[in-house]
UniProtKB/TrEMBL annotation:
The keyword Repeat does not apply. The chain crosses the membrane at residues 26-46, 52-73, 94-117, 129-148, 160-182, 188-207. Residues 27-217 form the Cation efflux protein transmembrane domain. Its main location: membrane. It comes from Nakamurella antarctica. It is found in: Membrane. This is Cation transporter. The lineage of its organism: Bacteria, Bacillati, Actinomycetota, Actinomycetes, Nakamurellales. GO terms for molecular function: zinc ion transmembrane transporter activity. Residues 222-296 form the Cation efflux protein cytoplasmic domain. Keywords: Ion transport, Membrane, Transmembrane, Transmembrane helix, Transport. It is a multi-pass membrane protein. GO terms for cellular component: plasma membrane. The keyword ATP-binding does not apply.
Length: 307
């Protein structure tokens, strides 16, 4: 005997999918970022500032990443009419976050390599234009961060977008600092130093996000979920004599899924055990999509499994 729940996840994963609740905010952040990217790239080329060009390169990844996240949140909410995707399209959000990681790593490494190549050179850097663009960029990034902050706590796609914009905000601060330092000292080496700092920051943030993406794709236990606690709680459900084959993973952000085999105690009512177990998983651990197999004590087929 088995049972399952088709209700949407509760808490952070409520609704068709978590990221879709923030589509409008994501769209505004995308428009702001795309507009500023053009301004910063032109300003970087005119001022010959590697820091500005580096930040514009990072901004380019933002445009692609935010666009991918925007498309992914829309795709994730679409029902599957083919019958081939039994879990729907929710994983598209995770793939978008993975694309963001790759873009961030590529830009970060490229910027560091370009900065190293400039060591020893003495280009004339237009500091006034650098600082003006840095201020504009900081304002744009702060607005985008406010738009994406709430969603970043719920969705891995939104978290990727938020980290991208956070990196840009740090880049804008770096551009401002480089402009001030070059103006004060007359030494263009600060442009290179800031560019390396921006590149390193981007790489570190990309690695951090990559770990979350791989955790979902590898079907690891979701962050914040205690497998031992859930196992103990299921074992304490009245009528459960034994528990085995417990698996918990995340379909996407806020959508945790579980499967387990519950061995009944003699005389236990299977329906009551199933209802009590699902109720406990829903209310205490926010796992509504749980597939539970209820077995009599003399059931032995599961013992033949090797994985």
């Amino acid at each position: 005997m088995g049972g399952h729940s088709h209700a949407p996840p509760v808490g952070q994963g409520s609704g068709p999918n978590t990221g879709s609740r923030y589509t409008s905010r994501l769209a505004i952040a995308f428009a702001l970022t795309a507009g500023f990217f053009v301004i910063e790239l032109v300003a970087g080329l005119l001022s010959d500032s590697l820091a500005l060009i580096a930040d514009a390169g990072h901004m380019a990844t933002d445009v692609v990443a935010l666009g991918a996240a925007l498309v992914a949140t829309r795709i994730a909410g679409r029902p599957d009419s083919t019958g081939k995707r039994t879990y729907g399209r929710y994983r598209s959000e995770v793939f978008a976050a993975g694309l963001t990681c790759l873009l961030m790593l590529g830009v970060g490494v490229f910027v560091v390599i370009e900065a190293v190549g400039r060591i020893g050179a003495a280009p004339v850097v237009g500091t006034r234009l650098m600082m003006i663009v840095g201020v504009i960029g900081l304002v744009v990034n702060l607005v985008s961060l406010l738009l994406l902050r709430r969603g970043s706590q719920d969705s891995i796609t939104m978290r990727g977008a938020y980290i991208e914009v956070l990196g840009d905000a740090a880049g804008s601060v770096g551009v401002l600092a480089a402009g001030i330092l070059i103006s004060a000292t007359g030494n263009p080496i600060w442009d290179v130093i800031v560019a390396v700092g921006i590149g390193a920051f981007v790489v570190v943030r990309a690695v951090s996000l990559s770990r979350s993406v791989l955790r979902v794709l590898g079907q690891h236990i979701p962050e914040g979920v205690d497998l031992q606690e859930i196992s103990a709680d299921l074992g304490q459900v009245p009528g459960v004599a034994e528990l085995h084959d417990l698996h918990i993973w995340a379909l996407t952000s806020g959508m945790n899924v579980a499967t387990a085999h519950l061995v009944l105690a003699p005389g236990a009512d299977a329906h009551r055990v199933l209802d009590a177990a699902q109720q406990m998983l829903t209310t205490k651990h926010e796992i509504e999509h749980a597939t539970l197999q209820v077995e009599p004590a003399d059931h032995s087929m599961c013992k033949d499994l090797t994985w």
